[in-house]
Structure formats: structure tokens, C-alpha cells
Amino acid sequence: MKTRILTIILLFSALFVFSACASTESRGQKTEQSAQPSKETASINTLSSREKTDGWKLLFDGKEMTGWVGVGKKTFPVQGWKVMDGILIVNPVKGQQGGDIMTVAEYSDFELSMDFMLTRASNSGIKYFFSKYEKGGWLGLEYQLLDGAHPDAKLGRDGNRTVASLYDIKPASNDKVVNPLGSWNTAKIVAKGKHIEHWLNGKKVIEADRDSEAFKNLVIQSKYKDSVPAFGSPDKGHIMLQDHGDMVYFRNIKIRELK
Fold first, then answer.
1. Confidence check: pLDDT of 19 > 50
2. Contact 125, 143 (CB under 8 A)
3. How far is CA 132 from CA 57, 81, 138, 211, 245, in A?
4. β-bridge partners, 125
5. Is 144 exposed, middle or buried (0-12, 13-18, 19+ CB in 10 A)?
6. How confident is the model at residue 92 (pLDDT cuts 50, 70, 90)?
7. Is 168 left (phi over 0), alpha (psi -120 to 50) or beta?
8. Which of 10, 12, 109, 142 falls 20 to 30 Å from 224 in CA-CA distance?
9. What is the pLDDT of residues 185-209, one digit of tens each?
10. CB neighbours of 64 closer than 8 A, spacing ≥ 6?
11. 3-state secondary structure at position 140
12. Residue 211 above 90 pLDDT?
């Protein structure tokens, strides 16, 4: 009887040791796996072989802001913007803004793409053909970045200040798909000659011809009606990202010039 009891005790002891070892090994595997960068993190701010062949270039490498300066300045803002974990962040601290930023280079015919993530009631924008006007200061066509909870979403005409719209000129299509807060969206702008397009998450939401009478009439009805030269007429300019004092995130900023 004592021999049988001893055998049972030894058997349970062996099972306990085996279970503990297996658990420790499992925890070790999970720790090792979690230490690896996620597939998404590892692939951001990079170009595929196909993209390189097609002429795409990164405007942001996830580390440095080479090629960007504050608007009208020679250096990048020392506050209000930061780069963290491969993400460019509009990051106002205690109300201190860094101001808008723009590329040093200017572009004419191009395709521009970037991911953005909005926060509650946030406001920003992507401006292109951004240049200094004789009357009106620094201006450019704007791909609107705006959360629907921001008051500006209710202003303008027919929703022309909502996300992906050509700000204060033309609204994005009603069937646009906007991912929820906390999710990434992808903006794309295509400019070829006088023709421009706005895309959101793979769907074209705006198309316009800048020298058409329809476009000129929209400008006349906008806040830019008195600009000189006529708003939206320059064929070359910088790419600009806005700092409206709200936290907004950017990544995968890339461009290719169209021949």
C-alpha cells in the first residue's frame, strides 16, 4: 500500500515539473515574439521594388525631417512637431505650436500619397502648389484633414470643408469612406497639368480642372476670391502640412513626379 502511494506521489510530482517547464517555455516564446517589431511597423516609410521602379520617393523616412522646413523659414520648427516610432506627429505642447511645415522642393505634375490619423475634433490639411501670392500671402490648394466633430466641418458650402474635400472650393463625394478615429486613412493627390484629383482610401472623391469655368466660379464663391494671382493657378509649388494646434499623425509620405 505504501509503495502504491509513493508511486502516485512521484507521478504527480513529475507531472507538476513538466507542466511548469512547459509554461516557462511558453512564456519565453511569447516574450520573444512580442519583442519583435510588428509587420506593420517594420514596413512603414519604405518603398517596394515596384514603387522604386515607378519613380516613387519618400518625403519622410520615419527618422529625420530632411527636406522639410517651417513655412517661410530655413529650418524645421523646434517645437510643435515630433517624430516617434516612425510617425510624424503634430504635437502642440501647452498651446505652443510649431507652425506649418513645407517641403524645400517644389513640384508640378505629381502623385502624392500619405497615411494620416485624426484625433477627436482635430484639424489639419495637406496643401499643394503651395507658394507665395502677391496678394494673399502663402496659399495652396488644400486636401482637407478634419474630424467631423470640428466646428469647421459645418462651415463653407455643401460640405466643402469636410475630410478629403478641396478646402472651401469643392466637397468630396458623399460616398467617401472614412475610417474611424484611431485608424489610419490614406490620402492621395494627383496633379497633371491643370487636372487634379483627391483620393481617399483607394477611392477617387474629387476631380477638377483648374482652368475650367466651373473651377473659376467655385473660386469666386470662396474665401480666396480676391487672391492675386487667381487662387489655384500656379503650376508649381511646395507640399505643405498644417499645424492647427491639434494632434494629427502622418506616415508613409511619398511622391512621384509624373512625366
1. no
2. yes
3. 25, 23, 4, 20, 23
4. 144
5. buried
6. confident
7. left
8. 109
9. 999 999 999 999 999 999 999 999 9
10. 83
11. strand
12. yes
* C-alpha cell of residue 226: 480676391
Q: End-to-end alpha-carbon separation of the chain, Å?
A: 92
Reported as a pLDDT band with limits 50, 70 and 90, residue 33 is very low
Query: Which amino acid appears at position 188 of this protein?
Result: K
**The pLDDT value given to residue 110:** 98
Task: Cell numbers for 242, please give them.
Answer: 498644417
Whole-angstrom Cα distance, residue 207 to residue 246? 28
**For residue 247, what are the contacts with CB-CB under 8 A and spacing of at least 6?**
89, 90, 91, 92, 119, 122
Residue with cell 475634433: 121
Q: How far is CA 127 from CA 107, 142, 198, 208, in A?
A: 12, 4, 12, 16
| CA neighbor of 72 nearest in space, from 132, 153, 152 | 132
Query: Does residue 229 have a cis peptide bond before it, meaning omega lies within 30 degrees of 0?
Result: yes
* pTM beyond 0.85: no
Three-state secondary structure call for residue 180:
coil
Name, in order, each residue with C-beta under 8 angstroms of 171's C-beta and a sequence gap of 6 or more. 157, 158, 159, 160, 162, 165, 206
For residue 42, the one-letter residue type is: A
Q: Supply 109's cell numbers.
A: 505634375
- CB proximity list for 90: less than 8 A, separation 6 or greater: 80, 81, 98, 124, 241, 242, 243, 244, 246, 247, 248, 249
Identify whether the C-beta of residue 190 lies closer than 8 Å to the C-beta of residue 196. Answer: yes
